[in-house]
Specification:
It is built from 10 helices and 17 strands. It is of the alpha/beta class and about 325 residues long. A 7-stranded mixed sheet has the order 8-7-9-10-11-12-13, sandwiched between helices.
Length: about 325
């Protein structure tokens, strides 16, 4: 594995999943998350479309993929080999990732009917993480509950942001993440201080009669934040943040602290990001006039893997 290659990750939620992700990045390669609970046809298509150099998985899932002779590494069968490796830190070499190297590829459905692989470079991820660490903010004393499938790009914040600032990741397994009662118990037992989720997941917690905490920070994104949900969440937290952004501009492009459930908006751009509202002629819309969102800056990705003709004009790289 080296810079420029892509490695598939087919791992159940747990320590091995996070360790595998970090190992791929450390090698200089980019990771392609393949949730083992996705339909087999979709997984097969994504693995083939990405042209994987290798696959990191377990024997439980290894037989579902044909990489045509390329390595399939089943971690549960490599215990002896892994334990024999040196514990010293791996140094940098000519294969180390550069700012424009692909960090990961996320497949989105889009309107074409077939998943499209969005190539996200290291410089975009670094910009995103450094901005999010400042606002909404995360510190070394925080504990963030990670609930999102690795195949959804908001998992990047949940897994990498805590590690980047010395905080703790509380990794919820798949069953817990989908069960409001179990998730409520995990938040309580772990002493969690932050969680990011979609409106559907927050409603799951509310249905389980989660009472929240005055010091808890809530990030809500992936879908529009309804006022009635915001009203309930504001009573159960120290701060509520509405976050917005398409996969093509690296997870979130804007964020806004919600202080009033009657005043919800996408907020201001994160660091090194520009957002315009344009009319059909590409001109700036006057204040209050609806238009199309165009996003530019360091978060703009490298386009769609193997699909250059689909690259959207709404995402504008810096010159």
């Amino acid at each position: 594995m080296r810079r420029g290659s892509l490695v598939g990750l087919v791992l159940d939620r747990g320590i091995d999943m996070l360790a595998g992700l970090l190992a791929v990045l450390k090698s200089g390669a980019g990771y392609v998350p393949l949730d083992p609970n996705f339909p087999a046809e979709r997984l097969s298509y994504m693995a083939g479309d990405a042209g994987l150099a290798a696959l990191v998985t377990t024997s439980k899932h290894a037989g579902h993929f044909d990489l045509r002779g390329r390595p399939v590494l089943a971690l549960d069968t490599l215990q002896d080999e892994l334990s024999a490796l040196p514990a010293t830190r791996i140094g940098r070499d000519e294969d180390t990732a550069q700012p424009e190297s692909v960090a990961y590829v996320i497949y989105t459905s889009g309107s074409t009917g077939r998943p499209k692989g969005v190539q996200v470079p290291h410089r975009a991820v670094s910009n995103f993480l450094s901005s999010m660490a400042k606002e909404p903010g995360l510190g070394a004393d925080d504990r963030l509950v990670a609930v999102t499938t690795l195949s959804f790009d908001i998992a990047v914040l949940e897994l990498l942001l805590p590690l980047s600032v010395g905080a703790r990741v509380v990794l919820a397994d798949r069953v817990t993440a989908a069960d409001g009662v179990a998730l409520k118990a995990l938040i309580a037992s772990s002493g969690a201080t932050v969680m990011q989720a979609t409106p559907a997941s927050w409603r799951l917690l509310l249905d389980a009669e989660w009472q929240g905490d005055a010091n808890f920070k809530i990030l809500c994104g992936g879908e529009a934040l309804p006022p009635d949900l915001a009203s309930q969440l504001l009573k159960r937290c120290g701060s509520l943040w509405n976050v917005y952004g398409p996969t093509e501009t690296t997870v979130w492009s804007t964020c806004s602290r919600v202080l009033d459930a009657a005043d919800i908006h996408i907020g201001r751009p994160i660091d090194n990001t520009q957002v315009w509202i344009l009319d059909p002629r590409g001109e700036l819309c006057p204040l209050g006039v609806p238009g199309e969102i165009w996003i530019g800056g360091d978060g703009v990705t490298l386009g769609y893997l193997n699909r250059p003709e689909l690259t959207s004009e709404r995402f504008v790289p810096d010159p």
